[in-house]
Design a protein that fits this description.
This is HTH luxR-type domain-containing protein. It comes from Cryptosporangium minutisporangium. Keywords: ATP-binding, Nucleotide-binding. The protein is α/β, with parallel strands linked by helices. The chain folds into four domains: 136 residues, 3-Layer(aba) Sandwich (Rossmann fold), CATH 3.40.50.300; 60 residues; 89 residues, Winged helix-like DNA-binding domain superfamily/Winged helix DNA-binding domain (Arc Repressor Mutant, subunit A, Orthogonal Bundle), CATH 1.10.10; 61 residues, Arc Repressor Mutant, subunit A (Orthogonal Bundle), CATH 1.10.10. The protein is 46% helix and 12% strand. It has 18 helices and eleven strands. The strands form three sheets. Strands 2-3-4-1-5 form a five-stranded parallel β-sheet, sandwiched between helices. Strands 6-8-7 form a three-stranded mixed β-sheet. Helix 1 packs across helix 2. The radius of gyration is 27 Å and the shape is elongated. The two termini are 43 Å apart.
Length: 409
């Protein structure tokens, strides 16, 4: 959890400026006469508790009196709310807002709410709760009447993730580390777990203020978390993402429905659950696994015999070449490989393949490990729909120019 009490040395709160402003504005608007309620919502590891801690500190600086959870949720310490003092430099007679926080709303005794309503008639009272996305608690009538101000924690932006990676890894992340961090889906705790796992397995390298990876692979702790996420899905949603993983990192709902022998409309609940899990995201009209290694981990959860059968079934659905035609169709049945779809690193490796270099030689030439080269080659073959180095070499030579020429040592 971002800045969790379990990690006292954790860097400052990252990427939550909008949410902090929401809470500050709500505190400033809180006035006597009516109870004000807010809830910080987000998935596990999104930084809910860390945001609440930061807000408590901010509220004290802005003159509020804060009351911790243990002092009010059972109803025995309501006098503490009335007697709570503001800052020492508050002017005599100043009306001091009361901030009550709670990370376990399901533990609040029902008798508390009428008493809070009564107190709020004479002094400003803001209650801020923390709730995990999807969790429920018995909202009392007072909460329903007052209405909840919701502060929803969305995934961190790529720039915020890069800032967090810099703080955790001790160096600005290079392109490969930033790409690998996509497995965290913008979740602060998952980013921290990724860096911790890379460091544990000596896969993290920091040199001259730049942080990168020795090899592109998932640490064991991240694989275990992905396995747990997959196991937590309902059987229909788990079946859906497992079959989708045999298609590729990006897949369309129509092709997936064909493999599942279902109509697309019937898959909507399972798709919604898969999206909520963070294993896949929506991009344009397709669904995409958030990283190729996430897709590979999900695919490996299937028995090998099932993976082979699904691939064979998918292959049987592809248009077959006309009798006497080429073994691999061209034209509308097989679009020309899109060289522009490759990243700069992938184009560099493809060009070196066109120069007849081995993976070991390419690794030395670009200063990466053979594992990294293997990973990029798999991505290249998938993106270009190629099956051999000969095809890739021919295509690379066709595209070699001033900007794509061989890289010299």
């Amino acid at each position: 959890m971002q800045g969790d009490r379990r990690h006292p040395g954790f860097p400052a709160l990252v990427g939550r400026g909008r949410e902090q402003r929401q809470l500050r504005d709500l505190l400033d608007r809180t006035a006597a006469g009516r109870l004000t309620l807010a809830v910080i919502e987000g998935p596990r590891g999104s930084g809910k508790s860390r945001l609440l801690q930061e807000f408590v500190t901010t509220a004290r600086r802005r003159g509020a009196a804060t009351v911790r959870e243990a002092d009010w949720i059972d109803g025995s310490g309501m006098w503490r709310i009335v007697a709570a003092d503001g800052p020492a430099d508050a002017s005599p007679g100043a009306i001091v807002p009361r901030l009550l926080t709670c990370e376990h709303p399901q533990w609040i005794h029902p008798r508390v709410w009428p008493e809070l309503e009564a107190i709020a008639r004479t002094v400003p009272v803001l209650v801020v709760l923390v709730r995990r996305s999807g969790a429920t608690w018995p909202e009392p009538e007072q909460v329903t009447q007052a209405g909840l101000h919701r502060v929803v924690l969305e995934p961190l932006t790529p720039s915020a993730v890069a800032t967090l990676l810099t703080a955790l890894a001790g160096g600005a992340p290079d392109a490969e580390l930033r790409a690998l961090s996509a497995v965290a889906a913008g979740n602060p705790q998952a980013v921290q777990d990724l860096v911790t796992g890379l460091r544990e397995e000596r896969l993290l390298r920091v040199d001259a203020g730049r942080a990168g990876v020795v090899a592109i692979r998932l640490p064991a702790r991240i694989r275990a978390q992905l396995d747990a996420t997959l196991a937590a899905l309902s059987p229909p949603a788990r079946h859906l993402v497992q079959v989708a993983a045999t298609i590729g990192q990006r897949f369309g709902l129509r092709e997936l429905a064909g493999l599942l022998h279902r109509n697309a409309a019937a898959l909507v609940p399972a798709v919604d659950e898969a999206l909520a899990s963070g294993l896949v995201i929506g991009v344009d009209e397709d669904l995409v696994f958030r990283h190729e290694l996430v897709r590979a981990t999900v695919e490996e959860s299937l028995p090998r015999s099932v993976r082979v059968a699904l691939r064979d079934e998918r292959a049987s659905r592809r248009p077959r070449p006309a009798p006497g035609g080429p073994a691999r169709a061209s034209g509308p049945d097989r679009p020309a490989p899109d060289w522009r779809g490759l990243t700069e690193q992938e184009r560099q490796i493809a060009v070196l393949v066109g120069c007849a270099l081995t993976n070991q030689q390419i690794a030395r030439r670009i200063g990466r490990s053979p594992h990294t080269v293997n990973y990029h080659l798999r991505q290249i073959f998938r993106k270009l729909d190629l099956t051999s180095r000969v095809e890739l070499a021919r295509l690379a030579r066709d595209h070699t120019g001033p900007d794509d020429g061989p890289v010299t040592a």
